Please model this.
Amino acid sequence: MKLTIFLLIGLALTSIIGTVIQQNPQREYLATLSETKIRLYSSLGFFDMYHSWWFILLLYLLTLNLICCSIKRLPRVWKIVSEPVHVMDERFEKTLSNVKELKLRGSKTELRDRLASFLKAEFSDPVITERDGEYHLFSQKNPWCRLGVYVVHLSIIIIFIGALIGSFFGYKAYVNIPEGGSIAQVQGSGGKVIDLGFEVSCEKFSVSFYDTGAPKEFKSILSVSENGQPVQGYQNIPIIVNDPLTYKGITFYQSSYGPSDEGVLYHLTVRDRKGGAPLKLDARQGERLALPGGAYLSVMEATQDVRPFMKGFTGPGAQVEFTPAGGRPQPFIILSEQYESFNAQHGGDLVVTFDGMDQKFFTGLQVAKDPGVLVVWLGCFLMVVGICMAFFMSHKRVWARVSDAGVTLGGSASKNPAGFEMSFEELVQKINKV
Amino acid sequence: MSSSMLFNVTMIAYMVSTCIFFAFLASRSKVVGLAGTYAALFGFVVQTVAIGLRWKESYDQGHGHAPLSNLFESVVFFTWTIILIFLVIDFMYKYHAIGFFVVPFALFGMAWAQLGLDSGIQPLVPALQSNWLVYHVITCFLGYAAFAVACGISIMYLIRDKMEQGGGSAQAGGMLSLFPSIRVLDDLNYKAIMVGFPLLTLGIVTGAAWANYAWGTYWSWDPKETWSLIVWFVYAAFLHARITRGWVGRRAAILSIVGFVATIFCYLGVNLLLSGLHSYGG
Model:
């Protein structure tokens, strides 16, 4: 149909727009465009063109078009499949491109039986009809492959239905969980908060690298609990990219990660200038740590590597607030033990050294619920099957008429006429030999 | 012996094959045509060994994976599939002249890969660590290769069509005698697309399945996805135009060439010119 070709080419051409103009653009991208362009693009829906009314309309038109074409053509094709022509009369014979008169000896019933067993062995089991003293044999192969193209059309509709189910009853969301933390809600697209109905906690996140510096694996260990109770079989499940976790139809995909401020543990050593064993201490973010002698210390900020912030220094460093007994808080910086004299500048009777920290991560998870996805796969499966039926299989039919005048063989195929001509010739030669 | 050396041998074999096919068109000697096919077959065998060797080399480096993970490997695999499909058609139909219009695609690909692309074996980034990689890449590239062959055949069609209409000089007429007839060319074009279209469909479906498994979205209108759909639309239009509107011959040949240009853009243009999720070079 002309309209189908027009719609297919139209969809192909308009789809290009969205690959050239950034979709759901970032501010940096918009800054590169002139104001008139921005106004024009957004009024035409180019910034989210695959969801714009006119693109959706084109998709609907294509669907409608293929439904209409199928309805128009299907009955005729269905008739060929369900009510095959069993009898090759003279008029029908003229419509066939492969017809052959055979010189065979024997009575009509004898020939009928010989042909029947021959067709059964070489082609397919024939249907025998008797009419006006003549015997008609009909056998066929793959009649249903004529429906292949309609299977493809149906599969497209099924895929669209699956996509609609997904957009109505599913969602895509995102969530960050710090190591040791748990969440019960996720952030849907458009900022909507969605209750999961259960809690997911991240026990641990780790990232490993190849020697080249390229990432090797991002791994989160997740646990699911419901109403405060751990769910059996869903504890300490490792998920990596390409291996997600699904619980109650909601799937969690490893997507990103980052350093988390929550739950960082800072390691400090406190030494008395007058002597005595050094004291190892652990502190959390902002925690007021009591030191020997009545002083207090809090870690405000810290890093594993001070190089970017302090020229000429390396190793971990922390910004701390030191409050001497009965004194006012003093902010200063402490470094690792290799900078002993640097650390000794502050702290009254005490010298505080920063030994580093346990960096915690948060894991970024893509969260998806899509009840339509199985329908989409069904559609995809049907599409592949339908395309193979339509392209690689041929409905082949062979008729034989046994009359007083002799035997006439006719044949036709829905595809590859040249190929069928050869196999028809072969069939004729074999009959002559029998 | 390293895979890199064998890839050089492959490239030279395809170059020799192209030259022999050119000599075939000039000399019209059947033996020469057959020699061109054998040169391509030799290159194909060497390339197969080289790909296997590269696979093994990646295991020797401690992070074994199928050699389908970056632009170099995908270009090499693409040329391999082009020659595979050419050899099948050559074996079935024995029209050696097609070689002159198809083998150069493979020669160009190998030359670009060997001279212009980084041939280092890199370990797989997390996104590619999946069995879907193999299914997806193989189906896509077999589809692309069928379209490449269809494009070469369509170019032959247009040349023959033009020469026949222009009357053609005696020499050109002689060369034409090596071309399949215009009807056969048209039929071969259709047959190649008939093979490529289901493979492309499978490639898109496996890609969608993989995306759903890795990211939770089977379709996100990423430039790569969109362009693969554009290619699919073009060939779907080709098939509909042919079957329901009787578009054969010149118009079908032109549509087939347009389809292959879109295919190449989908394969290379998207990665080199546009940005998106599919930034692995292939």
Summary: The mean pLDDT of chain B is 89. The two ends of chain B are 27 Å apart (CA to CA). The interface with chain A takes residues 63, 122-123, 125-127, 129-130, 132, 187, 194, 197-198, 201-202, 205, 208-209, 212-219, 221, 223, 226-227, 229-230, 233-234, 236-237, 240-241, 244-245, 262, 270, 274 of chain B (CB under 8 Å). The first helix of chain B runs from residue 3 to 27.
